[in-house]
Amino acid sequence: MQRLIFLIIFGMLLTLSACSKTEPVTTASPIAKENSVAPDISVVSITDGSTLKLSDLKGKVVLLNFWATWCPPCREEIPSMMKLNSAMAGKPFQMVAVSVDEGGKPAIESFYKENGFNLPTYLDKSGNSGKAYGLTGVPESFIIDRQGVLVKKIIGGLAWDSPEVASFLEGLMK
């Protein structure tokens, strides 16, 4: 019983710990929902400037993460995301870390250099991706299965390198 109470309180704290500098969506456009087809978005890689369309990743499990350099929970989860990305190398998995930083590519590159971090990072200068997913703050993550269906929305930071996460993702890859 104590463990259940602890888990409920822990979940509430995670939700409250999310940074919220983004505006909630107030349009009538469809917002991403679990067990529905994930909205198709286009983002630009900070590495080579290429455009990535989410629909091009069908056949892979996708971890779509919205984050910012100024967000403490985002900073805390990056090392575990890096470990997860390394562990999933060669598997039908794609991490898409979309930065909502107003400073764009220079701010992200400086942050990565200072901290020794690196993720497959993308920009969405129009903000349409966040709107399509109903972003209310950062970090917010979305797990999309191989058929392009949004299976899980996670608000707040997470230990992405935990065995439970790996097992869940591996199950989606089958």
Compile the SSE list and pairings:
Elements: H1 2-17, E1 36-37, E2 42-45, E3 51-53, E4 61-67, H2 72-87, E5 93-99, H3 104-115, E6 121-123, H4 128-132, E7 140-144, E8 149-155, H5 163-173
Parallel strand pairs: 4-5, 5-6
Antiparallel strand pairs: 1-8, 2-3, 2-6, 4-7, 7-8
Describe this protein's structure.
- The protein is of the alpha+beta class and 174 residues long.
- It has one domain: 3-Layer(aba) Sandwich (Glutaredoxin), CATH 3.40.30.10.
- The chain contains five helices and eight strands.
- The protein has an eight-stranded mixed sheet with strand order 1-8-7-4-5-6-2-3.
- Strand 4, helix 2 and strand 5 form a beta-alpha-beta unit.
- The longest helix has 16 residues.
- The N terminus is likely disordered.
Count of individual domains: 1
How much β-strand is present in the residues?
A: 15-25%
Instruction: Output the CATH class name.
Output: Alpha Beta
| Uncertain segments | 1-17, 20-29
Give the tags.
Glutaredoxin; 8 strands; globular; 174 residues; alpha+beta; eight-stranded mixed beta sheet; disordered N terminus; 5 helices
In short:
The chain is of the alpha+beta class. The protein has helices spanning 2-17, 72-87, 104-115, 128-132, 163-173; strands spanning 36-37, 42-45, 51-53, 61-67, 93-99, 121-123, 140-144, 149-155. 28% of the residues are buried.
